[in-house]
């Protein structure tokens, strides 16, 4: 009988096969990454709208709790107290992130029009604006709301949202 020579051939992937697999993975990543970025922007915008709703509720609660003050003039007045009980200076109505002015890729400002000058010692109105921290990356739209409770958006930052009285008025309602 003839003896067969032992084959000492190692099995594995060739360089070409590995390059094809890497190319396929890169093509899939090129398709998936833009969708991931768009979904992150949508999530940030949804969070900004939710935060504006929270701020609207907090302002109404603040006004009801402190009727001799009226509406809050700053986000920090709505924020949590550092120690002790809540007061008109730190009412504890929103979390520390939102009271600090940033949350989920958006910056929040209150009020958006001039300074908070009380009418007869009581703040009779408020308005709040949410702007993407990095337009195009963290969000596409700018949002605002005022005492009406209607949340509006605008795609441009310049001249958005306020008329001469400082009311959130030039956006599209959500």
Distance between the termini: 88 Å
How many beta-strand runs?
Answer: 6
Class by SSE composition: alpha+beta
- Major β-sheet strand ordering: 1-2-3-4-5-6
- Coarse shape: elongated
Beta strand %? 5-15%
Task: Summarize the helix and strand pattern as letters.
Answer: HHHEEEEEE
What is the number of helices?
3
Reported for the largest beta sheet, the result is: 6 strands, antiparallel
Low-confidence stretches: none
Rg to the nearest angstrom? 27 Å
Mean pLDDT, rounded to whole units?
Answer: 84
The total tally of domains equals: 1
> What portion of residues is helical?
25-40%
Defining traits:
single chain, 174 residues, alpha+beta, 6-stranded antiparallel β-sheet, 3 helices
Give structural notes.
With 174 residues, the protein is an alpha+beta fold. It has one domain (15-173). It contains 3 helices and 6 strands. The chain has helices at 15-65, 75-78, 96-99, and strands at 102-103, 106-109, 127-132, 142-146, 151-154, 172-173. A hairpin with a 4-residue loop joins strand 4 (142-146) and strand 5. The model has no long low-confidence stretch (mean pLDDT 84).
What's this entry about, in short?
The chain has 174 residues and is of the alpha+beta class.
List the helices and strands and how they pair.
Blueprint: H1 15-65, H2 75-78, H3 96-99, E1 102-103, E2 106-109, E3 127-132, E4 142-146, E5 151-154, E6 172-173
Antiparallel strand pairs: 1-2, 2-3, 3-4, 4-5, 5-6
